[in-house]
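Batch queue: ligand-bound targets. Current item pairs a single chain with UGC. No template structures supplied; prediction is de novo from sequence plus SMILES. Inputs echoed for audit trail.
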Amino acid sequence: MPTSMPCPSIRIPIELLTQSSFSQFGTVIENPAHSTLPPSQRLPIPDAVSANQGSATKYLDVTHMSNLYNLAPSKKPAKAVMNMFVCAPRDLRPHEPSESMPSSWGDFDFDDEDADDSSNRQLFDIQILERHPFTTQTFIPLGLSQSDNHTQYLVIVAPTLPASASRLRTDRPPPYPTPAIKKSKSLRDIFARARPSPFTNEAAPPPSQFTKLHPSQRPKGPGLPDLKNLRAFVATGNQAVTYGAGTWHAPMAVIGDRPIDFVVVQFANAVGIEDCQEISLKADRNADEGVVVMVDSDASGKVLVKAGIGAVRAKL
Ligand SMILES: NC(=O)NC(O)C(=O)O
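Prediction returned. Tokens below.
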């Protein structure tokens, strides 16, 4: 995989971070009692039990944690680690109209002139994406309230392109989880894979071994990030987020007045290229900018949602 990737000019509107919109990338951790979504758009509440002599509600399995380091080439075992990231607010640049294409996500009617006069649009240039192929990574903000409009964070993620579409000027690809392929031992095993099966009347294809997994836990593959389908979500202060293993994401982007402290929970084995793989995004020669998130905010500084659920549209 190259360490940098050329990109067309793309502008991305901001969506609200919800479990359903984020599902393929990871999980959103929040107290379901504080959800701001209309009931019809909420996912089922996680299983809960009473705890602490009845004084607490304990929601079970609120996020998925994966440790795939047994598939890492080094075979070096990982341990669970908790780090703290103190993330400073990012520099935004002033809005300028552009010929950039819209991302293909959301129902955004891309027209820069649509920006509401009362809202302020600034631009965040995404320069780098990274992934942790062998581990989930959970960011838990400390000390932010749901109503804090002055300090928010963006969760920026991209699906993974098929490996066949990812061969640029290929250097040696970085390590990626590849389960060992079991060799068939007998002719019966070999024929059993044929459909329709010679041993049964069943003609349907075998169920995928992945369908039972949460979408965020399904293997992403070793490919490059799919920049045209990159998405940017704004989180409220009482949400934590888990990136599924191998999910391409931008380093955490804080918007606002002050840094946010995040406790970050993941597995790591201290082999650099197995813990974190980065790719920098370089605007194509013909592109006037690279991949850009449009950060619209209201007079109080609150980031506005412009695509998907809860979008505030400039013209209705
Ligand atoms: N996401 C983020 O801000 N950073 C990382 O994932 C990291 O491990 O550096």
